[in-house]
What does this fold into?
Amino acid sequence: MAELKEFKLPDVGEGLTEADIVAWHVKPGDQVEDGQIIVEIETAKAVVELPCPWDGTVARLLAEEGQTVEVGVPIIAVEVETSDSAERARVPAPAPAESTAQAESTGTGSPQAEEPERHAVLVGYGVKTSSTIRRVRKTSPAVAAAAGRPETAEVPTAPQVPVEPPEVAAGPGAPAARTQSKPALGKPTLAKPPVRKLAKDLGISLAALAGSGPDGSITRDDVQRAAAADTPVRSADSPNGSRTATVATPLQVPGGEERIPVRGVRKHMAAAMVSSAFTAPHVTEFLQVDVTETMAAVRRVRELPEFAELRVSPLLFVARALLVAVARHPLINSSWDAAAEEIVVKHYVNLGIAVAAERGLIVPNIKHADAMGMPELARGLQVLAETGRAGKATPADLAGGTITITNVGVFGVDAGTPILTPGETAILAFGQVKDAPWVVGGQLAVRKACTLSLSFDHRIVDGELGSAVLRDIGSMLEDPLRMLAWG
It folds into this structure.
């Protein structure tokens, strides 16, 4: 026998309250296995893949792509096969005579009458009608009138481009066309995650686009054309053979405005930066460093067999120098506990690296980086960067950081005043390495130089300690042998 089970959106982070459905990997009728990835969701911290907890058949999807769903709300229903004996033990079946008598006494109809498409649902389960948030789809007055829907007044925020009313089949075809204007959940639109994000940012419905990519998949050009022009984008066949053209109303026009929804990772980042900037008193110090010897060490390390399959960059030496500096000055690796009125010094280092991911800035961290050797640290940096940029960093990767490095040099920037990661005391910015005039032994020479910027919480770190940490890091980058002597 088949039992209908509903999978509720779990709390995959620390105190997660909601998440956006990014992409479904299954559709109604698909066979799924325990542990199979069925959906991608975007939380306030990262994009997370959710596995199915059962073997069975997908009955229906209870949430659409792009929809925001609260934790605890069912998002998919799966029919799971159970043994007959288990079913009889769990729910005793009444005798036919009893069923007939009960049906007649309650006036519910004859025993032969069965309600189609009904499934047993436990109390407290089911879709909450008020627990989800859906983005309102803009529809032109002409389309609304032709489809039989009342026109909804909207307050424009930018000059509106007139849209020619599409031809809509009259008579019996109109209701059918209206029914088909919303795509069925069982037929997901083919589009890559970056294209889905672009469409979501521009307010374009993917289901209304005609894909020009392989197998009819939607490309970035398809989305951008729909946003820039008021052209018919896809014709949907109605059951009676008539065709109704749907029109994408552009979100932005020349000289107008663009509105980008703030949600997911970007929403969390914005709140965290505001909280950090207005909670911890920031102080930033700068130091220009001759890193010629470090750049030479990077080249030599790349030739070692232990680093043959690893990406070795100057960031590896910066990270190692920071870890040694933390060991020499433990207070820089601490946090402020306002409730207990205590400074929490952490004798381990979960090294955070700021990553500019597609959905916004994230700071995954390498757990216990202070206990790693150089090859292991290089491997950790490489894995962290790859997973972070691909949007695959998990909530566990993002939690528990103790001190952070932000490599602004990769953007061609010399220096900055980085904002502390919430809950941390210091963040080090590493600027670009470039040729610069430098005095060496009383003679002017061209050397490789960069600027280090250290921001710290002035409630915990005073100017003397902050300067000592920054000077130590600079000294080790000027002469990498000091990492061995001090580490």
